[in-house]
Batch of 2 targets.
Target 1
Amino acid sequence: MDFFKKTLEIISDSYGNPVLTTKVILSVLLMVLILCAYEFAVYRLVSHRTFYNKSFNICISVLPFFISTIILCLQSNIVITLGTIGALAIIRFRTAIKDPVDMLYLLWSIHIGIVCGCQLYEVAVLTSIVVTVVLLALENVSFGKLPLILVIHCDEEQETELFQAIGSQTKKYRVKSRNYTGRGIDFVLEISVKDPSLLAAEIKKTGIDRLSLIEYDSDSIL
């Protein structure tokens, strides 16, 4: 575990400014490489998303290299520190983050860069492990039931019987839309049930023989 502990080696020049050795720089970059590869694998394998963004994954894997070396430079010279602060103050990043979870991975990358730049390797490793455990737990543990989309067509006189049949199986449903036509009413409902087959059987008792139940990923739990 000695490798993961802070091992900053500082040599002062004639003006008293700390000078970083090649050994320190290589150790920081090696540790960043290991943790970036780990984060790359976690984002690719653990996060189950409809659309995997490879470009974003590459970005969060390369970003810590720049941040860690910037931190090293900030420790070595006060002039570089002031210049870097001024440069970062005028930079604006306008790329929109579509998935809020991606913000977590972006913060993780920044954390790796800063902590490894300070050579607090043990903190970086332990934080990465704990974050992975939390992500796995939250990705696989569900509180409540994910809703289904029920698409159904019925005659106007069947509307009361339809909602009675739905109400006999669950109280957790919302009518998303009603489309009135000359042949009846088209309903789109968001619904949460334990057994969709029982719901379908109950609806068919009303004389409705065609319906569609669509499962989808939603952040809202009924």
Target 2
Amino acid sequence: MNNHKHRTIFFTKKKDKVAHYLFDAEGKTLGRLASEIAKILCGKHKPTYTPNQDTGDSVIVINAAKVKLTGNKEAQKEYIHHTGWIGGLKRIPFKRVMERHPTRVLEKAVYGMMPKTKLGRAMRKKLHVFADATHNMEAQQPVSVDI
């Protein structure tokens, strides 16, 4: 019988320090940027990643209104949801969403890549999206990330 004392370490929120990352979305492709943000929010960029714990970091995104889509998607992409009523299928074009709520496009793209659980909803709270270049998160001293 082996008496080695190798044990698996499970990281919790208390053991892990939360960093703050700053992304500039200007000229970036929506999906590629969203997947990088989702990876950081989930904590998959860290060696201490634990699937059942929120070990991810906080993400601040500026210039979300200047995010790009490839191909013809800007004219064709629609956000579709159903109200629950008969005939209640709603289709909202990408351009209208960008005009009215420019931050919502990036938020929806990131949320679609996150777990649909209580843990996923807790991770989403660490995403802060701003439509222009100004943000109110200077006190967190975010580290600028270039992808």
